[in-house]
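Z., the sequence and structure:
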Amino acid sequence: MPSNEIEEAWGGSWASIFSGRVLTDTYEGKPMFPGSERFPVLIFSPGFTALSTTYTTLIEEVVSQGYVVASIEPTYDVAAVAFPGERVIPFKPQWQPGEEPPPSGETWQQFLERIRAFDASHVETWAADIQFVIGQLAALENSGREAAPFVGRIDLRNIGTWGHSLGGRAAHRACLVDSRTKACLNADGGIPEEATLPAKPSMWIDVYHEPATDAQLAVHKITRKEWEKFHRAKLAATEQRLRACPGGCYRLTIKMLGIDHYSFTDSPVLDAESKEDLDKAVRSLQLIEGYTVAFFDKHLKHQATPLLDQPTTSAGITLEKYGKAP
């Protein structure tokens, strides 16, 4: 039987998943596509508390375009992680950014510092996980054909890091510190605040987020005017840092009806209560899939990708290019 933690993680979608009504194009133990072609490798890191299987549709599409994807389940930070020998590590309860109530008397600045500390500790651990996985893939590649079905078919000269939310920040960090990586994509994890951006092609995909509510600001005793001043300063600082991006980078901003932070996952598709909701969820995923594949096609397969060739501002989509032309 499934663990309560996993069932809770899937919420209202669990009944459909566990009953077998949700079908995918993923099969266990299937051989590689025939031939001798080597495929670029992507290391995927999910968002905090999110199982990597939550991203099945997105990962399947990327794999179908000629990539090998190794996805990570961050131990203690997702519902459950299974190890050999039937050992299962459940989620470790911990404070999460945005949870209320905050410590008594905490200021807005102190709240932000608490979030940064939370993020920093997890990002470093998850980035180390990404590096570990790259090392394990390299070890398998040197172990002979019987070690894994993909041995002899992966291109370890073209490795990309990719993640969503907090996993996106970890992907960026791993790309920054690991010389084996060639490109990174951060899906709605925010522009990191490190002093240095990678000297490698990078992409950020951001979706629109509602500003802090009056109730949230009141908790930290900050006025709307003060928050807006802080927000403008943050946007200006981010813009300045991107312009100096040493490896060249893209920033895709999506502000469209029906797209939010969870549109990178299967949840909106599984939870759709009407055809209209389902159509919006599918369109959102298709848009995200298109830009994700285009970015890695250009920088790991070195193929022409018209979708990224020109800056775009139309229909709620803004694509900007910064720094050295990627």
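The chain has a mean pLDDT of 86. The chain has one domain: 4-322.

Let me know what you think.
H.
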